[in-house]
Write a structure and sequence with these properties.
heterodimer; A: globular; B: alpha/beta; Rossmann fold; 2 domains; 18 helices; 26% strand; disordered N terminus; AAA+_ATPase (chain B); transport (chain B); P-loop_NTPase (chain B)
């Protein structure tokens, strides 16, 4: 338990360090860090509408984060969540405007299509990993570009809505994710994300399968000796991770945009991966870190009107967080002489 | 300062390197204890001993990678304090490590001169480097192409480059740590002729090995290390392989053979004509056949590295066999996965416990679940029952006397002996009809050794078929009903545990087959 506490403390210090560095950057542009951070807070949590906006931004980050957690627990990096999210979003949109099904069922079919799209897309790197031992980090990163450009191509050349925008026709209302409140676009996607995070945490903690996956991630040769088919496990873990990544996109199109637009969800997949890393691969922790990144995004909307800082400062702060968290992980790993073989530690 | 031209009247000038009374401790463990090693100039001096006997530690002390707790190092008769490798290099020592340190994207010549590049006008003079590399390589028969990229070359050639690196830095004494471990027999022969060339040039070679044939073939003098002590230094010509084995293997029988009832029942494990390759794709098992019956302990003896590891891996589904069969309870296990072999009735205590045997960062409970996460009482309905797992763990901690704070204790915190008991506790409570134990007491203190041996005897009494692989002969002579001796991937012979004779086993460990034992002894 103290080990876990120490890990959490380490992450908190890393974030604090990044915010301190960010403050220096803000000072350099002649703005007060205090004003910037209070504006961010106000923008993220100032009134119920803003809170809802933050939760809305957090939802795709949370679901992508859970996707990344699943792979991390199995000892792998799924850096392709972004691409899976795009394909999932696109598949859900096609089902949403292309099929005519009863309300509810239509939505479920749309989400299923999103899950399937993500799973099929990640199956390519997953297969190459199992079969040829390729590094999934490289292959999943590269698959992002293909996925994003592929969805752009389909949108522009196959399903383009009449008019100027590069977007598909709108999704039928029967496929919409119901909204939670009437003052915001916040919808059932958040609930899906929360339930998914809790279920994933429960799975890893309480089932034989989750145990086998965790052991494959933390001590692969031990797991292999104990009879876990680590190759097969690794394959299915990546598939599950990609499926959830696809779901993130489906929730975004069916819940928020109600259509698929070219470049509709910039960076949610990557933010999710960072949220998962910041949470040390814990799905529960990812709820908190996703909320943090969602708050940064939604708070930044107010930055440009109320301060001299550009909203790009958020990107700078995020990048600093990534740097300090990775430095922290590396420092910790250096102290662990036996840890050389493992790729990620929980 | 050419050491060869030193006047012969100067005392100790006869020795290129002297290590006097070297002691090196790691915590409570003494890796070298008062070791004296005098290496004659222009000779090839072999250092032999089993794994963990302290050979590499001694050489690391000489090369300045480790600091001795006691003792003195002399090079060319003069005391030298080797604080780090650069001091050793300046004193004329060079070391070729087991694991090469080369940059694959650079050429051979660039690697050879890495860190000491020949410059002209501030730029690297590639032509001069290549010329110098070619000259050295021709002089010592280390055939390499200086312009080729290292990443494209074989291990044998990489080793030549490492040797060239050492020569370019002006070494007069070359230390090679298990140089033949990565070589094919042909490459080994070429290496030996290079080493002989060195001695003709007045250079000195120190050669670490546990392959006795090579030692016989190439060295002039042999020093045997055993449990950190130098137990003998002799001219190679005065020793036979069997004598070397006797010196290397501990003869102090510290165990008494427990009384036992004849319980052997039907065959549980039958191995027939088994062949397998090692990680370098060389044959590691050659036509191995034996049986293990219920209630019988069969021991596998041999100098480490003669196929024992591969045998354990094949029998546990972790390594494919190239030919032959092994059946457990009548089921062929050679093609099965690790899970399949376990289902067929295997429990396995692996030789490398920190890598295969446990997840050091997980709790004792979590470690005791492995391999049975899909069975009651650990699995209840669809989920793992952690409370039941903790209860089981508490029982096993008690029964196997594991010294820990409780089931939630992190395994890495425990001592080696207690970690081994965690592995035993898991595997011995699987009720498996066949128990494969690789190095039951490696790195375990005497008290825990006794406890582990008692537990193995209890399993035997319960009618379990047991295969014990150990490099400790005394352990096998205590436990085994039959001892099979492995050499170079083959079973050289089988002796009865009750009447086993160390000398007889020692001859087989040196590769002299059982049939010729009487004649040779």
């Amino acid at each position: 338990m103290s080990l876990r506490l120490r890990a959490i403390l380490g992450q908190v210090i890393a974030v604090a360090f990044a915010l301190a560095l960010g403050s220096i950057v803000i000072l350099l542009i002649d703005e007060s860090p205090i004003r910037v951070f209070t504006t961010l807070l106000r923008g993220a949590f100032g009134d119920p509408g803003k809170v809802a906006g933050t939760l809305l931004q957090s939802t795709p980050i949370l679901i992508s984060g859970v996707a990344a957690c699943i792979a991390l627990r199995g000892g792998m990096f799924n850096v392709g969540v972004e691409g899976q999210l795009f394909l999932g979003g696109f598949a859900a949109a096609v089902v949403g405007f292309g099929l005519d099904l009863p309300t509810g069922l239509h939505m479920l079919v749309g989400l299923a299509a999103a899950i399937l799209a993500g799973a099929v897309w990640v199956a390519i790197p997953a297969y190459f990993r199992v079969r040829f031992n390729t590094n999934e980090v490289v292959s999943t990163i590269l698959s992002n570009y293909v996925a994003i450009l592929l969805t752009s191509y389909f949108t522009i050349f196959l399903f383009k809505r009449p008019g100027g925008w590069s977007e598909t026709p709108p999704i039928l209302t029967s496929a919409h994710l119901p909204e939670l409140f009437d003052f915001s676009r916040l919808n059932w996607g958040l609930v899906i994300g929360l339930v998914l995070a809790l279920l994933t945490a429960w799975y890893f903690r309480n089932t034989p399968g989750g145990y086998s996956v965790s052991m494959t991630g933390s001590a692969p040769r031990f797991a292999e000796y104990g009879g876990v088919d680590i190759k097969k496990r690794g394959f299915w873990v990546l598939i599950a991770s990609g499926a959830v990544g696809g779901l993130a996109g489906g929730v975004e199109t069916l819940g928020v945009h109600h259509r698929f637009m070219e470049g509709f969800a910039p960076g949610f997949g990557f933010d999710g991966l960072i949220a998962a890393l910041l949470a040390n691969g814990s799905p529960i922790g990812t709820i908190l870190t996703a909320l943090f990144f969602g708050a940064l995004r939604s708070g930044s909307l107010l930055l440009e009107t109320d301060t001299a800082a550009s909203r790009e400062i958020i990107t700078v702060i995020q990048a600093l967080i990534i740097l300090s968290v990775s430095a922290q992980v590396l420092l910790r790993r250096r102290g662990d002489a036996q840890g050389g073989e493992r790729r990620w530690k929980f | 300062m050419d050491p060869v031209s030193r006047p012969a009247t100067e005392p100790a000038a006869d020795y290129a390197v002297e290590l006097l009374g070297i002691t090196k401790r790691f915590g409570a463990f003494t890796a070298n204890e008062g070791v004296d090693l005098r290496v004659r100039r222009a000779g090839i001096h072999a250092i032999i001993g089993e794994n963990g006997a302290g050979k590499t530690t001694l050489m690391n002390v000489l090369f300045g990678l480790l600091q001795p707790d006691e003792g003195e190092i002399r090079v060319d008769g003069k005391p030298v304090v080797v604080t780090d490798p650069s001091v050793a290099i300046r004193a004329g020592l060079g070391m070729v490590h087991q694991h090469f340190k080369l940059v694959p994207s650079l050429t051979v010549a660039e690697n050879v001169f890495l860190g000491m590049e020949i410059r002209r006008n501030g730029l690297i003079d590639h032509r001069a480097q290549e010329e110098k590399t070619r000259e050295l390589s021709e002089r010592f028969g280390l055939a390499v192409d200086p312009t080729e990229r290292v990443g494209l070359l074989s291990v044998g050639i990489e080793q030549r480059i490492e040797i060239l690196k050492v020569l370019v830095r002006g070494a007069r004494t070359v230390i090679l740590d298990e140089p033949t471990a990565v070589l094919t027999p042909q490459e080994s022969r070429e290496l030996f002729s290079t080493l002989r060339g060195f001695t003709q040039d007045g250079m000195t070679v120190i050669f670490i090995s546990h392959h006795l044939e090579e030692v016989m073939e190439v060295s002039d003098t042999v020093t045997v290390l055993r449990r950190g002590k130098a137990v003998a230094t002799r001219p190679t010509s005065e020793l036979t392989k069997a004598e070397m084995v006797r010196l290397m293997v501990d003869r102090d029988v510290s165990f008494e053979r427990p009384a036992r009832a004849a319980t052997a029942g039907q065959n549980i494990l039958s191995v027939r004509g088994l062949w397998a390759r090692d990680d370098r794709r060389h044959p590691a098992l050659r036509d191995v056949s034996f049986d293990v019956r219920a209630g019988e302990i069969v021991g596998i003896a041999g100098v480490a590295g003669n196929g024992q590891t591969e045998l354990a891996e094949v029998l546990s589904g972790l390594r494919p066999a190239s030919h032959g069969s092994a059946s457990l309870n009548g089921q062929d296990i050679v093609t099965l996965s690790p899970a399949g072999v376990r289902a067929a009735g295997l429990a396995h205590v692996p030789g490398d416990r920190m890598v295969r045997g446990v997840d050091g960062n997980a709790s004792i409970s979590a470690n005791l679940i492995m391999g049975r996460q899909n069975r009651a009482p650990w699995k209840k309905g669809p989920r793992l029952d952690w409370k039941a797992a903790a209860n089981e763990a508490a029982k096993m901690i008690q029964r196997f006397d594991i010294r820990a704070r409780g089931p939630g204790d992190t395994v890495r915190r425990l001592s080696g002996g207690n970690i081994q008991k965690v592995v035993l506790a898991r595997e011995f409570t699987n009720e498996a009809p066949f128990l494969l134990i690789d190095q039951p007491t490696r790195g375990v203190d005497i008290g825990a050794q006794e406890a582990i041996h008692d537990e193995i005897m209890r399993q035997r009494a319960k009618g379990v078929a047991i295969l014990v692989i150990s490099v400790q002969l005394d352990e096998l002579m205590k436990l085994a009903d039959r001892i099979l001796v492995m050499f170079n991937g083959r079973i050289m012979g089988s002796v009865d545990g009750d009447t086993a004779d160390e000398d007889q086993i020692g001859l087989m460990m040196a590769g002299i087959p059982q049939g010729s034992v009487e004649a040779a002894a």
